[in-house]
């Protein structure tokens, strides 16, 4: 029987902490480790201004190194907790827990199978990460439910009121044998949602997640949707993102009204040895009292921050330098996972 008191909170609801895993020489960051650490330090400094941070590290040597880095950046050590666990990579939006809230008391860690984005990368340790965090006592008395179905946290958006937004391109890659109706039923049942809204269009070159929704369109308070637009008619993304914008305009809230849409500006192409990198402004992170926004060293950075701030009124807007992250095909939201208030 479905527990009607469970729901997937919206990201803008109160949080206890943000969870990250620190890059090290055994991850895919090895080639540019020092560069990407500058982003992680800036992110940690920004998060701990507003709330606690849980940092997963591979061993005690890495923990001591990170402590030194954060100390140098003036981060309050009382707001940082370390957990030592093995991991393949640092994209905790996808390997971390999707936490459901039960009324005003209790939580359920929904632990979907993580396959390295459809088998593209090794993921055995990352798939065991949630169980490892549970065993380490990070989540207190929260229940732990393992679900043997591939889903990444970056592949879904929740408005906290029963609506889930996702992309067909991603989930059909993970589950080619299942219909949209079958997948909608699984998502509704496992996430205790009322409905699933699907986008058929939208992608970014350089994104190996198969079009995660958190690079494309995000729910915001007050029936708003913030989305990545493209206003350059000669860019190869233009037609696809125009079609996605039309899909978003056609969506309706549960009471039949259109959503309030906030298109984000388009950064100029960023290339790495000829490879286009996925620089999405939609990949921002909400924390208590603030919204942390990716900055790519592009002239559109400030306008993107302004629009995101407008869509999330009452929050401070903090830009975080994310150009090093997109070298590995993700950005700010992809490396983080928020934990609801009261959970730890």
Tell me what you see in this structure:
- The chain is α/β, with parallel strands linked by helices and 344 residues long.
- It has one domain (6-340): L-arginine/glycine Amidinotransferase, Chain A, CATH 3.75.10.10.
- The protein is built from 11 helices and 19 strands.
- The chain has a 4-stranded mixed β-sheet with strand order 1-5-6-7, with helices on one face. The chain has a 4-stranded mixed β-sheet with strand order 4-3-2-19. A 3-stranded mixed β-sheet has the order 8-9-10, with helices on both faces.
- A hairpin with a 2-residue loop joins strand 14 and strand 15.
- The protein is globular and about 50 Å long.
- The model has no long low-confidence stretch (mean pLDDT 97).
- One of its GO terms (biological process) is putrescine biosynthetic process.
- GO terms for molecular function: agmatine deiminase activity; protein-arginine deiminase activity.
- Keywords: Hydrolase.
- InterPro entries: Peptidyl-Arg-deiminase_porph.
- This is Agmatine deiminase.
